[in-house]
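User: Quick sanity check before I run a bigger batch. Here is a single chain. Can you write out its predicted 3D structure?
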Amino acid sequence: MKKKMKKKIKNVSASEEKLVKKKIYRLNKYQKLWIDTLLSGKTRKCKDSLSSLDGKSNCCLGVAIKVCGLEKLPSLTERSKSYLSENCSEETLKDFPLTYKALKLKDESGFFSKESLKGITDDDLPIMSDLTSLNDDTKMTHAEIGKFINENREAVFK
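Assistant: Done. Predicted structure follows.
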């Protein structure tokens, strides 16, 4: 039986060693599928709703609903009749609890803690604090949003 040898990290302080040993957030199968789909560049982006009227484009959260396959994403017309009010122009995962639970997002809009973002300053994201805003209020592509989520797992997921 082979014994695993621990490699010692030379010239590293105790606090730096803790950072090196810090457990990396492991994605579940739904999170991985969602991020991989966003990164693929094969999705068409829409703004201000989970999907476009024709259903051919989605916001980043709409992509999650479709690829997770846990719930059907009704057409925008059907959603408008059933639960969207005139006062609510922003859709979230609130009405898709299975997808929301599977993704383990911090909240239904994809809120993220700006304090825990890697390499991002307030100049980069002055008012953005959720994935819905990144999708609707920036020129970020789905691939760029996927990269952002993947690089900031601890900030986005529970």
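The first helix runs from residue 14 to 21.

User: Great, the batch can go ahead then.
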